[in-house]
Amino acid sequence: MLARLILTDFRNHADLTIAPGPGFVVLTGENGAGKTNVLEAVSLLAPGRGLRRAALGDMARQGGPGGFGVAADLTGDVAIATGTQAAAPERRIVRVQGSAVAATALAEWLTVLWLTPAMDRLFVEPAGERRRFLDRLTLALAPAHAVHSNRYEAAMRARNRLLAEDVPPDREWLSALEAQMAEHGAAIDAARRDTVAALAERLIDQPDGPFARAGLALEGWTSAGETLAADLADSRRRDAAAGRALIGPHRSDLAVTHLGKDQAAGLCSTGEQKALLLGLILAHADLVAERTGAAPVLLLDEVAAHLDPLRRAALFDRLSGKGQVWMTGTEDALFADLQVESFRLQLT
């Protein structure tokens, strides 16, 4: 977990240092005070583009010198940091213990999961949003998932470019790229399926409570052993016409069902979808702690404001003693039911 967080010229924070405790970290303040910006900074200490998926150049403080820095001291005397320089605002720099590393290496040191108001529509959004959500869950259990995903995407982009050329593509080079997609695609699919199966098993065994139980399944494209390379070769003409690859793990979808109602999550009410998502996140956090021996860092943006008092108290009780949990809210009264000791900071 984070023992200290330092923001330099990040979003609206010119210089902010937070030394949170091991449990709840509560950030309050008016809209625009920068609460979500702090959570976004923490999310950048894991692989990926953070909870907003924003361009790096948009994260540097307006009116600042250009570039930004996010650094953290983790328990266990580990220092990690990320940021950009003014001369290259879209080039991400990542360091662990002072040494430059790839962003994917962050998965070895810190697991970060988040829930934001923008995710309330996850079950009715296009499949790509659910794939990204599933990949974050998978990454927490299989750190190598980030490497396989990056290499698969790189090979797929290169193949798409070759197929889009006006001249006949180099067949040997296409075959090599398709072999890479098949290798990493199989690893991606296997890791996703392991995550879905383990999480589904945990959810179905849980008793009914304030947070709805979700049934999970991976739909769409499924791995067919060693046939993906051959299937890609057979679909070159179709893919060239479409301008993209039409088969592969990038075509899978996470199907979520409200078990209590036997109804697809996308057909449930907004409140039910929120409860399903919360239940899923909480179950996954328990699964990560069980498998890795370390609870993930949870970032819950404005979660208390969107829950009734019963579910709010149940959430606080469920999260108590589960690791470091960062929560934001516009007023401290939202956290009145939080009975355990917590670190609190009001931003202005």
Tell how many strands the DSSP assignment holds.
14
Cα-atom radius of gyration: 21 Å
Widest beta sheet: strand line-up? 2-1-4-5-6-7
State the helicity in percent bands: 25-40%
Give the CA-based shape.
globular
Q: What low-confidence regions span 5 or more consecutive residues with pLDDT below 50?
A: none
DSSP helical segment count: 8
Order of helices and strands: EEEHEEEEEHHHEHHEEHEHEE
Overall pLDDT level: 93
Strand content: 15-25%
Sheet with most strands:
6 strands, antiparallel
**What class, by secondary structure content?**
alpha/beta
Give the distance, in angstroms, between the N- and C-terminal Cα atoms: 25 Å
Walk me through this protein's architecture.
- This protein has 348 residues and is α/β, with parallel strands linked by helices.
- Helix content is 36%, strand content 23%.
- It contains 8 helices and 14 strands.
- The strands form 3 sheets. The protein has a 6-stranded antiparallel beta sheet, with helices on one face. Strands 8-12-13-3-14 form a 5-stranded parallel beta sheet, sandwiched between helices. Strands 9-10-11 form a 3-stranded antiparallel beta sheet.
- A hairpin with a 4-residue loop joins strand 10 (252-258) and strand 11 (263-264).
- Helix 3 runs antiparallel to helix 4, helix 4 crosses helix 5 and helix 4 (171-204) packs across helix 7.
